[in-house]
Amino acid sequence: MAQNFKNQLVYTAIGTGATEILATSNSFDAVVGIRLVNVHASSAINVDVYISQGGNNTYLIKGSPIPNGSSLELIDGGSKIIVKSGDKIWALSDVASSLHTAVSYIDNISS
To answer: 86 in helix, strand or coil?
Structure first.
């Protein structure tokens, strides 16, 4: 079975309100990368990323600092996070308009 690699980019800078960075639909998906980038002009930021599943939140990272002009890779070394239909991944920063995200995933790993 061929793998269906995809990415989800958030072009608008994320701020203090939680922003959906990935929503799954009809299958199990494998998230193979989440990159968080501080795009603020002059300060460090603190970020949260969590999975929302049926009204419950599970944090992948909470209050993690990212220096000005730097990025943070949440999944590395061949790790994966499996998400199921209906799961959503959210991100937010403690500074307005300061965070960009890139999520790489394999769609429909199981039917």
So the answer is: coil
Per residue in 44-103, pLDDT (tens digit) is 999 999 999 988 999 999 999 999 999 999 988 788 999 998 999 999 999 999 999 999
Residue 30, CA distances (Å) to 14, 44, 57, 65, 103 in order: 23, 30, 18, 26, 11
Domain of residue 102, CATH code: 2.60.120.340
Q: Name every residue whose Cβ is closer than 8 Å to that of residue 38 and which is 6 or more positions away in sequence.
A: 44, 45, 66, 67, 68, 69, 70, 71, 98, 99
**Tally of domains in the chain:** 1
SS3 content of the chain, % helix, strand, coil (to 5): 0, 65, 35
Give the predicted TM-score (pTM) of the model.
0.89
